[in-house]
Amino acid sequence: MTRVLVLEGHPAKGTFCGALAAEYANHAQKGGNEVRVRHLADLDFDADFGVSSFKDAKPLEPDLEALWQDILWCEHFVLTHPLWWGGLPGRLKGLFDRILLPGMSFQYVKGKPLPEKLLKGRTAQVLVTSDTPGWYFTWIYGAGAKKQTEKQILDFCGLKPKGYHMFSPIRGSSDEAKRKMLARAAALGRKVA
């Protein structure tokens, strides 16, 4: 059994990202894993870091504190989000700015160029919806959001990336294509180990 946290990172409710997160979570739970799901749209917090240094960071709101406890609890972190303007939605990026802080998720070490990863021992998967075809995202755009999310956010803190999965194109896709995408998310949920 694995403790799984699914963060559905779309800033609106009732989205296809939400449906993918639900399929993943449902099938991970059916596989005997303990699963918690959080929805960005339900979290009440100020997404603006708003200061110039970490020492001046404002205290976490109750919803962010609860999410932080879920991150500490989990062994496998799953993020679903839409690709907007080649990256994360602003509110989701703001969540990471606010919650992934030194002393909590990473720690600077004197004399070393890179910080210590304080969330080691956890894995992560990312499920991304996009109107951009996956091949175009990779070969033309250079998969910048993938690099940022996997390397500069997750792995920076110690969450070992175990897959970045594109679900696209969403706009104009048939009901059958969407059913296949949901089945793919369910299959990923069943593979949690």
Describe the structure.
The chain is an alpha/beta fold and 193 residues long. It has a single domain (3-190), classed as Flavodoxin domain (Rossmann fold). Helices cover 38% and strands 21% of the residues. The chain is built from 6 helices and 7 strands. The chain has a 5-stranded parallel β-sheet with strand order 2-1-3-6-7, with helices on both faces. It has a two-stranded antiparallel ribbon with strand order 4-5. Strand 4 and strand 5 (116-117) form a beta hairpin. Helix 1 (16-30) runs parallel beside helix 6 (175-190). The radius of gyration is 17 Å and the shape is globular. The mean pLDDT is 96.
Runs in which pLDDT lies below 50 for 5 or more consecutive residues are none
CATH superfamily assignment?
Answer: Flavodoxin domain
Q: State the share of residues found in helices, binned by percent.
A: 25-40%
Please, how many helices? 6
Q: Sketch the topology as an H/E string, one letter per element.
A: EHEHEHEEEHHEH
CATH class: Alpha Beta
CATH fold topology: Rossmann fold
Radius of gyration using CA atoms only: 17 Å
CATH architecture descriptor text = 3-Layer(aba) Sandwich
By helix and strand content, what is the structural category? alpha/beta
Categorize the overall geometry.
globular
Strand content: 15-25%
> Alpha-carbon distance between the termini?
7 Å
GO cellular component, one term: cytosol
GO molecular function: NAD(P)H dehydrogenase (quinone) activity
Family: Belongs to the NAD(P)H dehydrogenase (quinone) family.
Pfam families: Flavodoxin_2
